[in-house]
Amino acid sequence: MSRARLFFSKYGLDLLIVIAAVESAISTALSDDPGHPTGLRLWFEVVAVAAVVLTLLARRRFPFAAPAVTWLASAALSFVDGRLIVDKAGLFVAGLGAALLLGNLRSDRQARVGLAIVLCGAAIVIYNDPYHETGDIIFTPVLFAIGWMVGFALRQRSERIEAAEERATRAEREREAAARVAVAEERGRIARELHDVVAHAVSVMVLQVGAVRHRMPVTDTEDRETLRNVEHAGRTALAEMRRLLGAMREDGEAPELLPHPGLDHLDTLVDDVRAAGLPVKLQIRGEPFTLPPGLDLSAYRIVQEGLTNALKHSRARQAEVDVDYSATEVRLEVRDDGPGGASAAAGPGHGLVGVRERVKIFGGDMTAGAVPTGGFVLRARLPLDGGAR
For residue 388, what pLDDT is reported? Predict the structure, then answer.
């Protein structure tokens, strides 16, 4: 069944053209009009009418020439036999189809020329018919002009659909490009923050190694030299890391001098959001403990992004933050009751992209979206082992 549908969708119009050509040829051969030709002239007319219709098979290769030739040839044959064209159903269908094809041309100039060919061709065919009436010279070309107008309307509709599809495709590409930029920017920000954390840890290690070396006896030269090498390697690594951090910062971006926040700063964050006009309820589950610096910072940023979405995009009346500590992971949840919660996922800052990147770094998972009862919920799980297996 699917093969038959595919065949007719691809070759159905060609099949109709062949049927129309056969009908026109048979009708010409069996015509009993007075003065009907016989012999060689009859066979010429049979072949000629079939060829006029079959010309439309070349419409894909010659979108203008094929339907134009159908009309021009019909007008020319009407001079040979005035009744040859007008009384054939197949030729009528072919002429109407040719008019539609000419109206459907992409080139406005060719379409207008095609309309002139249709009008003139129809008028000539009717004029050469010895039995025509005066009104036929007007109404018959108008009938085929309506076919041309149908083709023209279909072309405009097709162009609008293609333009809409192109805009949708371009918008999708732009969204994908914006998302890639947002991911790159967020990864750069995460990298800078984590490099700051690592740089701080390396600085502490270097200072402690230096302190131990200075307290060692002068006679213990081998151990002192080993610690001096460690201290030198640490300072070199720290200098390279600071140089890398400087390269990663955008032009004009000042280095961060304040310590990075963590989950123990949530009270301050919640107070700031409340001061901005959004009531927030903070609930801590489990026994809080010191988290690895990078994970602690990312957990804070996730909660911060969730509250920012609730404040800017969700039009919420209140929000809730749950932090659940366990021995193996930290679970975060930020939810609000705003009617515009679904739009938070598509905020201009691509904030959820950053949340997803942070969660991915530590081997966790996240969900974000509107809930049936109303509002928007952001959930994230951060394993304390960084997702190691």
Answer: 47
